[in-house]
Amino acid sequence: MAMSIDDIKATAKKITSSNERTHYNSIITLLNEFEYDQASFQDNELVEQKLRFLVVALFQIFKKMFARNDLSMSTKRPGANNNTATVPLAKFNEWCRKIYISFKMKLLATIGNLTIETSLALDCLDLYMQLLELESVHFASKKDAAFFPNKTLKALIVALWKSNINENEIDPSNGQSANYILLEFLEKYYKPFVDIQYYFQSEFNLLLEDKDSSTSTTEQYTSMKSAAKWVTLMNHDSHMDSTTEELEVFVSNPPQAIENESKFKSLLEKNWCAILNGELSLQLYKTILTVLHKRIIPHFHTPTKLMDFLTDSYNLSNDDMDQNGIIPILALNGLFELMVKNNLEYPNFYQKLYQLLTPQLMHVKYRPRFFRLMDVFLASTHVSVHLVASFIKRLARLSLSAPPSAIVIVIPFIYNLLKKHPNCMIMIHNPKYLYDPFQTPEQQNELKLAKSQYEDPFNMEEQDPESTNAFGSSLWEMDTLTQHYHPNVASLAKVFSQPFKKMNYNMEDFLDWGYDSLLAAESSRKLKILPVLEYETFDSILANETIDQKEEEDTPDKSVYLSSVSW
Amino acid sequence: MAGSQLKKLKATLKEHGLTGQANIKKNKKNTKRKATEYDREEKVRVINKIREQFNPFEVKATRDKRNEKSKDKNNTSNRVAVGKPGISKQIGEEQRKQSYEARKLIQNKRGGLVDRRFGERDKNLTEEEKMLERFTRERQSQSKKKQNLYNLEDDENVYGDDDDINPFDITLTHGGVALATETGFLDEDNGLPLNKRAGLYDDSADGSALGQSGPARKKTKTEVMKEVIAKSKHYKQERQKTQAALEDKIDDLDENFDDIMSALMPTQTKPKSIQPKSNIDIEYDTKFRELNSDQRAVPSDRTKTEEELKNEAEEKKKKLEQQRLDRMKGMVENEDGEEHGVEDLDDGFWSNDDENENMEDELANSDDDVNFDTDKNETDADENDRITKKVQSFNCPTTHDELLNVLESYSFKEHPIVIKKIIKLYQPKLAEGNKERLGKLTGILLRHIMFIAGQDYSSFIKDFEAVTNSLVAILKTLSEKYNQSLSEEARNILIEIQERFKLHHFAGLSNSDLIFFIITGTIFSTSDMYHLVATPSALLISEILEQMKYNTVDKVAYGAILAQISLKYQRISKRFVPELLYFFEKSLSACLDSKTMKIENGLTFSKDDKHILKLHIISHGNDTKDTKFQKTLILNLLNSLETAISTIWKELSAFPEICIPIKNVLQSLLTRFPSLNITSQLIEKIERLMKFNEHVPLTMQNHKPMAIPSHAPKFEENFNPNKKSYDPDVRRNEINKMKAQLKKERKFTMKELRKDTRFEARQRIDEKKKDAEQYHAKMAHIYNTISTEEGAEKNKYERERKLRSGKK
Fold first, then answer.
1. Do B527 and B328 contact (CB within 8 A), yes or no?
2. Which candidate from A434, A519, A562 shows the least CB-CB separation from B699?
3. What letters, b where the CB count within 10 A reaches 16 and e where it falls short, cover B583-613?
4. What is the ipTM of this complex?
5. pLDDT given for residue B741 in this prediction
6. What is the C-alpha separation between B610 and B617, in angstroms, rounded?
7. Model's pTM, two decimal places?
């Protein structure tokens, strides 16, 4: 059965070189040769090499056949105008088309069934797309008529969606698909070509709405894997748009329909909605939400269709998923977009926002994004003082167990809020409790009494920011942070005891700090002065258990650095 | 009035009656009346006025602005004279000339008479003052003399010091003859007359006779001149004679110089022996030189008493503590202190090295190595030698692998000794470059300690502990000298740990990292506000504490130790570490969660359970899940929580806020493990401390009210154009006045100095011109005389020739 590369070369040459069709039968043998066992790829590199050569050779043959009009539907042939020849010629063309279709099927099978990464699949994809281009020219109803072989594309989509590379199928970091064939298709064909984008959307829509076929296929396209693939294809910035001029067309003469932007948008929108209604993995969910406001909403015809999805996400309480309540934080951004541009109204928005301030917020990486938005939401000077006080107090409380990067956001944020709402200054300076050396004894007694009777009225558990009584509380947390171990954080916290003369802090300077950048700032410092040494000496760095048990009294002067750890 | 200036002058003079014949008649009438003083003065005034009028540039005048009538600018009557520039200039010129001439007189001259009379050269004194002063001085000196008169003790002083002040006019006598005359005779014997002047005017030879005969006859001029010439010749001869005699004497002395010298210094003139030195001599010389080069005996510092030593140590400690406190408060390093530190390094570097050696010797004999010494008590010295010899054969290790190669051939217990030997061998004073080598070794030693801490040592913990402790002690000693390289190494290690943690999370960490953090804590001053090693180190510990997911016992145990280290870092500065609070919350709730940690429900705690975690079990042992370890872990966590509460948190203003989550966790711990007594104690403690914590609203903005800067225009109510300054500060006002005066004076003086120099230059040119003129005149005169003489001679010659020709 096995043909060597040389054999293939010889056969292919025979077919393509002469003008006669005498050797067409050997195409069948070549096609039969296009059979493989995936397992053999690992063992023998030659197998793959041969197959790749074979595919290319076959493509050359079919290209030739296109050129010779062997595959065309029309019976007319240039140079052959006698009617007697039409009937056998039609038969011959039919036969040719048959083997052509079988070749396409084989290509798709390769794309859809391979479970390991080989360049053969990529070759197949490339050749298939080139065939698509050839088809658009030769299968057109008339010469130079606009035509796009959408059926062929649909077949490819099915194959792509069928493809499943065992490992590396899903990127664990963002839940998107990392299928290499899909990525190749995205980079090489989907992103740069506007016609492919248009027909892809329309065909994919047909696939999703396919009522005729069994329900399983529809479900197949709303499954987690499908969604992953879909998001991979969609998560980029080169969608067809009235503003993006640089996109090209793939086929030489595509139909006029591809210019219809609103049609494209509504198709895309429908597909998105179908996907979002289907299953989503948590990672993918996060990915969608992070890109929603930038890469999805602008391409929607009516963005309000996303409203339900977003409000549902936003209302997800922390208990629903053990993902530290990140989903609502992420949904906030898209929701904000809708509120600003589409007049979406959200009842009890601030209450919900207040509830988002959880201890976890201080430890997640989406923190800067959230604070950026919160800066916008609390920018209004018309929100009530109690509400602002609640936000301030809650943020301060959370900063007590927060990393320095979060504290560094919270301090300027609170400072800006205090600047904007001077009424809240009472939280850091309550003149009622000010000690004055010129007070009369009665006043002093009064002050003492007030001090002793004072009790913090703030209720951390209260969900409504209007009724937490934060206004009567004080920011001891900020005072405590002046004792922070990191010198920069400590000195930043000292702004509250300095005169409020500074203008607002620019939040952008503080949002993107992390342990990495803090440590990098430290390590980039030059050793100008020698670090000071500890003058205290320790006899041993860890506790000695034997001593600890027996001779605790005998050796009291033995100094130990870490007394509750032993070797 | 018309006509020339002269005519005008004549007319004016006539008008005032100063010239002409107009008043001759009048004069004739009353000739007896003399011109009174008044008339003369009046006359002078009038003449001056006329002079002024005719010489309008003599006077500098300004227009009288206050006079109402003075609108007319050309009206000379309204002009007020303010100065006479011509005259003042002339005066100045004259003064300069005077002083210049005075100076010129004494120029190139020595001696001269200096007028020492009081106040004679002081221009500022008036005649009367001078006289008064002179009088008082005279009186004073007289009174002084009187004092001396009765002062018996100072008698000798009186004679010895100044003969001039001889109060009694005492003259010393010898045999009734005054000694003064004797000296006079003596002088005469020498051929030098007592008084030249006397000799000039009274001839001693004739004078005595003449004096006796009667009044001296006045000599004729020729006589006087002859006498003078004879005398000067005589003196000249005398001088030549004495000069010759002196020269003879000097020659004699020169000839006999060697003899005299030999008589004076017999040792130096010894002829030098060129004989080769004997061996003994050479030996002696070398000994001598050696002894010379030896350090001289210096009185050693007094042995201090124990109390003094204690006091000193205490004082030093106090000083260090104060510096540490300053650093903790973030004050900038005291410049003096800093400099002092650097100086210390420079000064005592070498001597410190000796100390270092001593210290090492001490170390070798310290408790840590007792086991080692007793084991091979006899062979110890040999053993040391063996190690030394071996160590000598290789270079100072420059990488950790090299050090490992070196240490390979020794037993583990010998490692500290080997390293000490290496350090001793590469003392900086022994060779150049040793300092860098040892610096490198310090970093390597740090890595080595980390390395051995990462090994499985569970089978010989005791030895391991001893060795590690002595290695850490060595590192600590080295760190004082090689701070720089150690710090750099530590910072590199920090970066490495962070990268490992970022890539592999918990799997990237090991026990050696814990040991690194501990060593950093023991070597560097962690209480500083900012520290180049301690701050990043604390930051990294916090990062690990915050980012770890506490779902296994291992992780919680690792975190527990990190928490302990973090607490130790803050043991003095007592700074708040939020990550620590986060860690306690997370770890304790992880202990509650039986699913993730697999902690048995029925854990019962007894008093015997220790809270000391064993480091080797955390990483190497597989039995981390046994209940004993879990119990220890929980106890350890609670123990560090207790430390955190009682040392750091209780002083913070947000203590109640900090304790809310902790209390909740502790409550649920108590319900889960009822036998955990320490939990309930902790809760009680928190409640007790909360009562003490004064929790009242903050007053952080209690600042001094700030003054608003005013920008109102300055307006002087009592303006007075004569007043120069309105400064209310009298002192400052006076200072400004003085300054202005000084400036004015300086300007004036500069002007004068310039004038002086210009004058001098002018004068010099004049002199030169004069000299040149004189010279030319002289030359002209010479030429003239020569030509006249020549003419005369020529005429003579002509005449002679005519005569001769006539004769012929």
1. yes
2. A434
3. bbbbbbbbbeeeebbebeeebebeeebbbbb
4. 0.72
5. 95
6. 15
7. 0.60
Distance from CA of A279 to the nearest CA of B (A): 28
CA of residue B676 relative to chain centroid, distance: 68
pLDDT at B179: 56
Residue A329 and residue A366 in contact, taking contact as beta carbons nearer than 8 Å: yes
Q: What is the pLDDT at residue A20?
A: 64
- Of B484, B582, B653, Cβ closest to residue A530: B484
Split at pLDDT 50, 70, 90, the class of B791 is very high
DSSP A514-550: -HHHHHHHHHTS---SPPPBP----SEEEE-HHHHHH
Among all residues of chain B, which has the CA nearest to that of A436?
B702
- Asked if A356 contacts A325 with a C-beta cutoff of 8 angstroms, the reply is yes
Q: Is the dihedral of CA B397, B402, B403, B407 positive or negative?
A: negative
A465's CB contacts (< 8 A; 6+ apart) are A350, A351, A354, A386, A387, A390, A391, A394
Show the 3-state SS of B349-367.
HHHHHHHHHHHHHHHHHCH
Q: What is the pLDDT of residues B470-515, one digit of tens each?
A: 888 888 888 888 888 888 888 888 888 888 888 887 777 888 888 8
Element (H, E) at B80: strand B79-83
Q: Do A523 and B495 touch (CB under 8 A)?
A: yes
* Inter-chain touch B526–A561, beta carbons under 8 Å: no
Distance CA A37, CA A113 (A): 11
Is A412 a residue whose pLDDT tops 50? yes
The answer to whether B442 and B388 are in contact (CB under 8 A) is no
B699 φ, ψ to 5°?
-130, 70
Return the residue in B446, B456, B463, B465 with the most chain A beta carbons within 10 A, the one to mutate for interface testing: B465
Interface contact flag, A476 B654, Cβ < 8 Å: yes
Give the list of residues 6+ apart from residue B548 with CB closer than 8 angstroms, or none: B505, B506, B555, B558, B559
pLDDT bin (cut points 50, 70, 90) of residue B556 is confident
A93 — phi, psi (to 5°)? -60, -40
- Using CB atoms, pick whichever of B320, B581, B700 lies closest to residue A401: B581
Cβ distance of A534 and B522 shorter than 8 Å: yes
Cβ contacts (< 8 Å) between A427 and chain B: which residues?
A: 698
**pLDDT value for B214:** 46
Please calculate the CA angle B402-B403-B405 and round it to the nearest 5 degrees.
65
Contact B353, B424 (CB under 8 A): no
Strands in A286-358 per DSSP E: none
- Tell me, what's the pLDDT at A488? 87
Cα B350 to Cα B347: distance, rounded to the nearest angstrom = 8
Are the Cβ atoms of A400 and B654 closer than 8 angstroms?
yes
Strands A540-543 and B177-178: unpaired
Q: Closest Cα to residue B27, out of B39, B35, B37?
A: B35
CA A277, CA A320: separation in Å to the nearest integer? Answer: 18
Buried/exposed code over A351-379 (b: 16+ C-beta within 10 A; e: otherwise): ebbbbbbbebbbbbebbbbbbebbbeebe
A342 φψ region: left (φ > 0), alpha (ψ -120 to 50), beta (else): alpha
At A175, which helix (H) or strand (E)? none
Give the DSSP letter of residue A484.
B
Q: Please state whether beta strands A560-566 and B60-63 pair in parallel, antiparallel, or not at all (unpaired).
A: unpaired
